[in-house]
Amino acid sequence: MKKRNSLSTLFIALFIAATTVATAQETKMVGGAAMYPTKNIVENAVNSKDHTTLVAAVKAADLVETLQSEGPFTVLAPVNAAFDELPEGTVATLLKPENRPALQGVLTYHVIAGKHSAADIMKDIKEAGGTAEWTTVNGQKLWGMIDGNMVKIKDQAGNVATVTIADVNQSNGVIHVIDTVLLPEM
């Protein structure tokens, strides 16, 4: 009986250790906060110190409920510094209630339906001969390419963002952190 209990205890310990390792591999740090794959996009994003502007914009655009829904979504999430690079007054203007449709257009330009991991994105780029094209939730196009060992995303205005943190898994999709705000045609 002792041998069976020892084996059961060993099995349970190994299972807990394996589960802990798997969870640790899936949880990434973004903006000083752990991004848990069991939480949705909004639940994680609100904890990132690097995404306070994005979170404020999502709230002002009335997109919180959408980004908490089942999805799945792939979100290209610009950091605060990316918003700071926009012309002075742009963010403040977009956050005004009367500009909600324009803000929604900008934010949904950063979302692709479905869950597209970094491996999926790289595969799309390679299969397309070096430049992949995706249609965003707002209906406009983005293009992805590889530059050295970095994935770059180009918008319709010619701005190019670099993916700085890939595969931040969420319960309803995935976030890829980017360093530039992508701009749709207005």
Q: How many structurally independent domains? A: 1
Q: What is the percent of helical residues?
A: 25-40%
CATH topology value:
FAS1 domain
CATH superfamily label:
FAS1 domain
Mean of pLDDT = 86
Walk across the major sheet and give the strand order. Answer: 4-3-9-8-7-6-5
* Helix-strand string: HEEHHHEHHHEHEEEEE
Oligomer: single chain
Question: How many whole angstroms does the radius of gyration measure?
Answer: 19 Å
CATH class term? Mainly Beta
What's the SSE blueprint?
Elements (H helix, E strand, L loop, with lengths): L1 H25 L1 E3 L2 E3 L5 H5 L6 H9 L3 H5 L4 E6 L1 H5 L5 H5 L5 H9 L2 E3 L4 H10 L3 E5 L5 E7 L2 E5 L5 E11 L2 E6 L8
Parallel strand pairs: 3-9
Antiparallel strand pairs: 1-2, 3-4, 5-6, 6-7, 7-8, 8-9
Polypeptide structure, described:
The protein is an alpha+beta fold and 186 residues long. It has one domain: FAS1 domain, CATH 2.30.180.10. Helices cover 39% and strands 26% of the residues. The chain contains 8 helices and 9 strands. The strands form 2 sheets. Strands 4-3-9-8-7-6-5 form a 7-stranded mixed sheet. It has a two-stranded antiparallel ribbon with strand order 1-2. A hairpin with a 5-residue loop joins β5 and β6. It starts with a helix and ends in an 8-residue tail after the last strand.
Q: Which characteristics define this entry?
A:
single chain, 186 residues, alpha+beta, FAS1 domain, 7-stranded mixed sheet, two-stranded antiparallel sheet, 26% strand, disordered N terminus
